[in-house]
Design the sequence.
């Protein structure tokens, strides 16, 4: 089982976490939603699989390139 | 027949056969084992079959015995004329199997900056393709010459001049440092291969010695750094073959030189095609982003979009494409990245793309969803305002026809960089457009503070004022006032743009030739 990191492409604040560990996500499915520049911008899973970890909390600031979740493919 | 030139002629063919052996079977096998093709293989993959006319295969270092040639080690640069999609190009590249492609110090250079290949492209007014695989000069040349030379003895003058005359495409196929790295950047389009090519001003040994940092070539100048991080190179390819395919693709949009119009291709995609998907592609909820790449795909000729720098400055998308077969440059904001706000990288990308289109007479279509310049301390530190105003400046200097389609937001100075203020200033809006000097939410509290604070319920009053102003900012009211020149059904976008750009072709014909540039970019 390979683990892939779900990374944010932008800097922003975590607005909503859409999944929890154990959930299964598909390719390009949103994992969390960030608030940045007044927009609600989804962070998408690059690979589909089982979410094993969520590394951020709602309200937390996230940097560009930061890993926000781990998905087991 | 003893008075014929048969034996000398046979020697020409013999010497050509030696040239085709590169640096010998072992060097070629090692090169292949590293997952790389030879320069001759690269050329034959790139060009139309059988079209390569090599020039100067006989150049090299001869070994003689009693005045009779035994062998010639070819010069480590292969070049000549070829055709791509039936059109002539000048192309060349270092032969890595011969001393790592290092320049070998002839009086007249075959390739590289100031080399014959650049003169050929310049004098014949045909595109130049550089297949780069070399580390440039070596300090050993001091020993051979007996003295040092000033930097630029083989200078970039011609490489620079070419950028205003003919298309230049560079594929970094191996390691590029020094002069070859400089030439890769002095191109209209550059591409490198993931994992097998790297580019840097100076390689790991120099970095370790001068900074004490130990890095692999890939860590220092692989695609992650050079393409995604620095934007030093435009695109990354998964394989050598894909990189060469991208070079072909890029050139398919380009004229042979600045005196010609870009080539129009046959188009079997109906001009009137209006996809229903466009009607709902922009979400009604103003804070929800959408897929701008899909918007581009739905509007331009099917399958024609070729995105440049897709992984750098990602809040703007710069894509060559076709509309009714005519090349067009699409500059579209990407709401998925900072809501499409212009940061310093996006500005840099937009500037380069605008100049590319302007130089080669390719009209520009802006698909606008621009909330403004990126804000915040990091953005200020990165010089966003300065880079952004440079984008405004370069946009205002462009003389190609520019059409602006406002998809959603168009605000502020960055919004200004998305229209042709110095030209026709032709702007059309989708019904989802919201346009203004400032976004309503941002300005209401400051502009109406007294009124809001004195209200019984200040928060409710603020919302009321915002709603009132937003209604006035409706694109319908702007169209009534001719503040935008038209409003269009999103499904009509393709047909509308095709019609307008067909008419604008007459204008393009009047500005052919090199473009005079003056002034100081901010």
Sequence:
């Amino acid at each position: 089982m390979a683990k892939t990191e779900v990374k944010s492409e932008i800097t922003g604040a975590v607005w909503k976490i859409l999944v929890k560990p154990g959930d299964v996500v598909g390719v390009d499915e949103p994992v969390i939603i960030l608030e940045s520049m007044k927009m609600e911008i989804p962070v998408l899973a690059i690979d589909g699989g089982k979410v094993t970890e969520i590394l951020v909390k709602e309200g937390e600031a996230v940097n560009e390139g930061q890993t926000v979740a781990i998905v087991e493919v | 027949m003893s008075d014929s030139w048969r034996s000398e002629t046979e020697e020409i063919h013999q010497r050509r056969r030696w040239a085709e052996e590169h640096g010998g079977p072992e060097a070629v096998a090692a090169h292949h084992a590293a997952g790389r093709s030879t320069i001759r293989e690269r050329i034959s993959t790139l060009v139309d079959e059988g079209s390569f006319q090599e020039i100067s295969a006989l150049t090299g270092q001869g070994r003689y015995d009693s005045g009779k040639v035994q062998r010639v080690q070819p010069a480590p640069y292969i070049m000549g004329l070829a055709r791509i999609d039936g059109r002539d190009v000048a192309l060349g590249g270092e032969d890595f199997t011969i001393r790592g492609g290092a320049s070998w110090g002839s009086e007249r250079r075959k390739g590289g900056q100031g080399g014959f290949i650049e003169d050929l492209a310049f004098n014949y007014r045909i595109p130049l393709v550089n297949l780069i695989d070399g580390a440039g000069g070596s300090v050993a040349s001091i020993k051979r010459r007996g003295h040092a030379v000033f930097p630029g003895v083989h200078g970039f003058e011609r490489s620079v001049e070419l950028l205003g005359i003919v298309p230049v495409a560079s594929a970094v196929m191996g390691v590029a440092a020094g002069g070859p790295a400089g030439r890769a950047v002095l191109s209209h389009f550059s591409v490198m291969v993931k994992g097998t090519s790297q580019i840097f001003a100076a390689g790991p040994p120099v970095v370790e010695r001068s900074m004490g940092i130990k890095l692999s070539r890939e860590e220092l100048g692989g695609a992650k750094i050079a393409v995604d991080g620095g934007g030093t190179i435009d695109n990354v390819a998964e394989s050598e073959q894909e990189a060469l395919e991208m070079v072909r693709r890029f050139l398919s949009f380009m004229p042979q030189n600045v005196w010609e119009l870009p080539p129009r291709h046959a188009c079997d995609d109906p001009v009137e095609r209006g996809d229903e998907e466009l009607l709902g592609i922009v979400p009604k909820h103003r804070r929800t982003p959408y897929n701008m790449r899909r918007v581009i795909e739905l509007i331009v000729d099917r399958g024609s979009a070729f995105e440049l720098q897709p992984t750098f400055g990602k809040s703007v998308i710069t894509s060559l494409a076709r509309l009714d077969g005519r090349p067009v440059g699409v500059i579209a904001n990407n709401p998925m990245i900072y809501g499409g706000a212009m940061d310093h990288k996006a500005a840099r990308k937009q500037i380069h793309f605008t100049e590319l289109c302007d130089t080669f007479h390719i009209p520009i279509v802006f698909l606008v969803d621009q909330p403004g310049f990126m804000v915040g301390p990091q953005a200020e530190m990165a010089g966003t305002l300065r880079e952004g105003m440079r984008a405004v400046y370069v946009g205002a200097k462009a003389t190609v026809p520019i059409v602006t389609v406002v998809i959603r937001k168009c605000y502020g100075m960055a919004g200004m960089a998305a229209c042709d203020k110095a030209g026709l200033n032709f702007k059309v809006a989708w019904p989802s457009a919201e346009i203004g000097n400032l976004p309503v939410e941002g300005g209401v509290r400051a502009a109406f503070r007294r009124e809001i604070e004195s209200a019984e319920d200040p928060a409710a009053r603020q919302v009321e004022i915002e709603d009132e102003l937003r209604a006035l900012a409706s694109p319908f009211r702007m169209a009534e006032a001719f503040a935008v020149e038209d409003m269009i059904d999103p499904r009509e976008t393709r047909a509308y743009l095709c019609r307008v750009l067909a008419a604008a072709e007459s204008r393009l014909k009047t500005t052919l030739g090199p473009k005079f540039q003056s002034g100081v970019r901010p």
